[in-house]
Amino acid sequence: MVLKLHLWVLIVFGLWAGMGLSADEVVLITNMQGGDATFVSFKDLSNLYKGRKHSLSGTQVVVVNRQPYESAVAYQFLRKFLGLDAEQYKLYWLRESFRGGAEEPRAVHSLQELILLMQTTANAISYVSLEEWEKLREANLEVKKLNVDG
């Protein structure tokens, strides 16, 4: 009986924590030009979002994060690609700021803000939900999916 209760709590918490969005519904996007701009390695992506890397294929990129980090899309992105939750990611950047280390990625707080940034900033990389990806395609925004290798 106790085991069933614990399992039920884990399932409910897992659904709440992910806010109904699965990790497969996170779409990486970029407005970078060229054929190399459709793939990124898992390691490079992690390093970009941790401020350890600033370019892909020799091109300087603008890394864009979604906030709040507790939002469904940011939560799933952090979990899937960085192996961190929102609090761990915030703590990572707090430590970096005290160390004088890397600079935290640029942040946007809405899809509209992300669209504006993607229209006005070259070589940007970010992520959206699958539903948001469909909206971007309908709006004919010049962005493409960024596939992750490895």
Number of helices: 6
Mean pLDDT: 83
Strand content: 15-25%
Catalogue the unreliable spans.
Answer: 1-19
| SSE run | HEEHEEEHHEHEHEE
Instruction: Tell me the name of the CATH class.
Output: Alpha Beta
Write a brief caption for the model.
The chain is α/β, with parallel strands linked by helices and 150 residues long. Helix content is 46%, strand content 21%.
Walk me through what this model shows.
- 46% of the residues lie in helices and 21% in strands.
- The protein has 150 residues and is an alpha/beta fold.
- The protein has one domain: D-Maltodextrin-Binding Protein, domain 2, CATH 3.40.190.
- A 5-stranded mixed beta sheet has the order 6-5-7-1-8. A two-stranded parallel sheet has the order 2-9.
- Residues 1-19 have low confidence and may be disordered.
How is this fold's topology laid out?
Blueprint lengths: L1 H17 L7 E5 L8 E3 H8 L5 E2 L2 E2 L1 E5 L5 H11 L3 H14 L6 E3 L2 H10 L3 E6 H9 L5 E2 L1 E3 L1
Parallel strand pairs: 2-9, 5-6, 5-7
Antiparallel strand pairs: 1-7, 1-8, 3-4
